[in-house]
User: Fold these one by one.
Assistant:
Number 1:
Amino acid sequence: MSKTYTPRGLAVPAGRISRAARLGGLTTGLLGAMATEGTRALARGERPRARDLLLTPANARRLTDELARMRGAAMKMGQLMSMEAGDMLPPELAQVLAHLRADAHFMPPKQLKQVLTTQYGADFLRRFQRFDTRPVAAASIGQVHRAIAKDGRVLALKIQYPGVRAAIDADVANLGTLLRLSGLLPRDLELKPFLEEARRQLHEEADYAREANELTRFGALIGDDPGITLPRVQTDFCTGDILAMDFVESTPIESLEEHDQATRDRAMSRLFRLFFEELFDWQVIQTDPNFANYRYQPTTDRLVLLDFGAARHFPEAFATKCRALLQASFKADREAVRAGLIDLGMFTADTPASQQSLILDMVDMALPMLQADSVDFGDTRLLTSMREKGMALGMEEDFRHIPPWDALYMQRKLAGLVLLATRLRARVPLRDLAAPYV
């Protein structure tokens, strides 16, 4: 399915009642369309499945467009479902939800002015030499504008959409109702843990004071690393709904595709090294794998890191378990790897032997990455084979084990790095980068 919407100025439904009404209307409309099409199919002597009735092209467009219009928790939860539960969702639904990872619609000037007036006062323009009304980026929770303060500081203002924080709980509950009633999900899939985790994460990401603290924390941890830059928080422009930072000139990380092999390799090696530091040294990881959170400065050969709303703190015991699994992997000790995976909660000792074997086979396939001088992510044959193994596991009717959230978030970050390295066709010395932590 091609992209079904183009980002444009579109007001965000701000009130909890109006947002609930829109999601309720979406649920009613989709279920009504399912009932109508089901009646027609039965009249033709067919016995259609729920997913076939819901995921018609028209319904898929309606679902994507409405969640994109809503933004906030409705859109973010669609993104989370496509990533966290993607292997358990029907491929058609996962594909529809994946489109929500694209750029969001943005607030029209009138609504933007209302937000700025509420946050800075009616004379807010006096604080700036220049304010660009067209956002440089728009996502599910807010949008980013470039501005120049009176004293000449060039700022990036991350402005939260009105009403999204107050509506998180209701949005998550209403979207959960839609997923339950649709019949799309496996009957024995417990949706409640996903809803609760989505609600928790959304509240954290909508807390801009928390994000400012995490950005400052990461800046201190990374220190004077010559290859990485983070924007600094500008506290005098921060409010409850606006996070103000330095505006750092940079290009999308995908622009590295046009650079030479050495530059691409250097960039991805830095990001994998940073991942190991986050997990083993600091026990805090920026877990959002969105490519937009990475930028590149061609003039300085520096990576720019953005968006720390999804920073997650991990218990030291979790890092210790990950280290034990890494050690077992370096030794290619299959039984120790199995014990490590059980300890992390990736499966249990009671998981059927055939399913354990599938997971261990995937690990065995990945072990050469820790034994080679360099991993060529431009060669996608290994990753394709591993993906096929994963899909085979997901097709197992009785495999519904959900690993602990810490493991899922760590896995999501690592998978995002692998996808980016593949996109950039990078060659990365994973063995040398991981060796200090064995």
Number 2:
Amino acid sequence: MSRDAGAGRNLTMPIATVNPATGRTEAVFEPHDDAEVERRLARAAEAAAEWGRASLTERARSMVAAAELLEGELPAVAEMLTTEMGKTFAAAKGEVAKCASAIRYFAEHAPSLLADEPVATRAADSRAVYRPMGPVLAVMPWNFPLWQVTRFAAPALMAGNVGLLKHSSNVPETALYLDELFRRAGLPAGAFQTLLVGSERVEAIVADDRVRAVTLTGSEGAGRSVGAAAGRALKKSVLELGGSDPFVVLPSADLERAVAVGVQARVQNNGQSCIAAKRFVVHDAVYDRFLEAFVAAMEGLAVGDPLAPGTELGPLALEAGRGEVEDQVADARAKGAAVRCGGTVPEGPGWFYPPTVLTGIEPDMRVAREEVFGPVASVYRAGDAEEALRIANDTPFGLGASVWSEDAGEQRRFAEGLEAGMVFVNAMVASTPELPFGGVKRSGYGRELAAQGIREFCDVRTVWTD
């Protein structure tokens, strides 16, 4: 299933907060009608002119104010995230803090990231300059409902663009909170707005002449839909899609640490992360020891109420998402995979799925070719390093990859040979404002964060003076 970012599927999904831990509907929202969407598009166009003319110092002042609001409201915002999509309260608090930190980063570093770049030519002066594009539509998913938006908004707003957010229909309270956050922080009216619309209306918004570009984080299907719409409209697009990240363990690895981080890397965000480790490729020399410790650690995780202290794994965000994971595991089991732990939906309310470890994976199994968006780890045995690299790259995706080795030669070989947009050595894949974020192959194109991300939604202009 991956992360449905609200484009290309679930066209009739209601805009509602449904608590994944209980299945209870907490709030239902009316979608914006055509007249309201038109009002918001018009306001975005007006705000783009004002915000684009603002100095970097003025923009930074408002963005820092947004970070301060987030920090001051952290517990309440974290509880909202947990209620809407089921992540543990501890993880939700970490997400809010990370968003505030990223906003501060781009407020501070935008002047250097967007600085003119003089180029030596025969002209008296020649340079590349970066200027805002205008309104950018962001089609965002539910799994990190605050961070995914901030990852786009912090650099794009500091670059002088304005944002139009079409968030996933199951996190409307987060979407509306963001709508108000930037207004309260002092950005011009219309500089950041939420559109409460279903995915069936995204294509028309992309086609609107006032929208200059679009970014999407979500499933491969959603990416194809939005990317095609942007192509028809001849507009810039950035797509961050699914991942089936390999976690490669070689004989020289610190096994104890690799197991501990591997469990964290698989079950972060209840297993619903594009950059979560999903395929564990383990060298034959350490396979048995790794598997035994890994299964024991997965079995020992505390599963329960995501708001309760000590809970390590909460429910999946959507009932349909749990059904998809259940079907993927059932397919693997039917085709001969061994279920080392988990694999059975528990009784009771909520959309919980247990930590699950599969071995004996074959290429015709769905878990081998699809992104599994839940706490399910597939463990592969590799005869040598060459086979480990082959298995790691045997996927249509290429978002992140992690390799565990204390051998400098192996580290270099895998850092170069892994087909992924991000390679982490002796660490789990993560996002940080200082480094570009994005993938290759079917994991999408373009980059978020860092200098590359803030420039994605800039018009790059050549200025020549004789």
